[in-house]
Amino acid sequence: MKVVPLPRALACALLLATAGAAAAAAPTASIESLLENSSRVTVRQGQVAGQVIDQAQLQQYANGDSMLLQGGADTADGEPILMILCGQSVYFNMVGGLPDAVNVQGDALKAARMGQYMALLGGVAMVQGTAGKALILPEPGARLETTAETSWAYGKERFALEVERPDPQRLRILMTKLATLTTTPASAPDDAFSTDDDRAARLAELEPVGAWRELLVSTAARQAQVPDQMTLQGWEANEGATPTTVERARNGCSPR
């Protein structure tokens, strides 16, 4: 299986600034500016209040390296499961870091890692999309509570937003679903597209009321790079042989 390093492109679109970007946030902070200058982005999510079913972090480095960690907390590292060196070479941790019910190996495990990566990026995108560009962030040391709505095929979803900036370098947004609103009239017998079956199928795709997603962003100074001495035992390269250490892997990076 050849895994195309798509996550890098998606991360650039959603999270990353160019390598070496200043770690401090822009004078007028927005969700986008804080993400672009972030050193760590954490997404926690669940279906019931207080119950975490998934938690992942994206650690970003000054030289363009990035690492996905599963579990852990905003201030404590989780388990490294995917790594991008030099902004282009993808490596997968082939041991651990999956729910107990998931038992896959080889190419299927690499695909699962990609899924974990996409879940984090998707979580960030959902918070961004719900909060919207119009959301004015509170000043450092303050918090606000508001509501927001997004559209689905037959109506609106309503969310509560708790937005907090403990200090200039940290942002926390907690998004909780409050309601699913159906605003489109019931289907007529001769409707070809807006049928009861289609409405039920679209409704089943939505998250339940009470589902929540928390985004934590830190713009503390980025570390220089993934440590050269880190062993790659138990890891596999996206393609080709896997070096023994990060230093050896980085020596094989193509010039950009």
What is Rg?
A: 20 Å
What's the total helix number? 5
What is the SS-derived class?
Answer: alpha+beta
Classify the beta-strand content into a percent band.
25-35%
Helix content: 10-25%
Oligomer: single chain
Q: Strand order of the main beta sheet, please? A: 6-7-8-9-1-2-3-4-5-10
Q: How is the biggest beta sheet arranged?
A: 10 strands, antiparallel
Q: Outline the low-pLDDT stretches.
A: 1-26
How would you describe the shape?
Answer: globular
What does this structure look like?
It is a single chain. The chain is an alpha+beta fold and 256 residues long. Helices cover 22% and strands 30% of the residues. Helix 1 runs parallel beside helix 3. A 10-stranded antiparallel beta sheet has the order 6-7-8-9-1-2-3-4-5-10. A hairpin with a 7-residue loop joins strand 1 (40-46) and strand 2 (54-60). The longest helix has 26 residues, at 106-131. The model is unreliable at 1-26 (pLDDT under 50). It is globular and about 65 Å long.
What descriptive keywords fit this protein?
single chain; alpha+beta; 256 residues; globular; 10-stranded antiparallel β-sheet
Quick overview of this protein structure:
The chain has 256 residues and is an alpha+beta fold. Helices cover 22% and strands 30% of the residues.
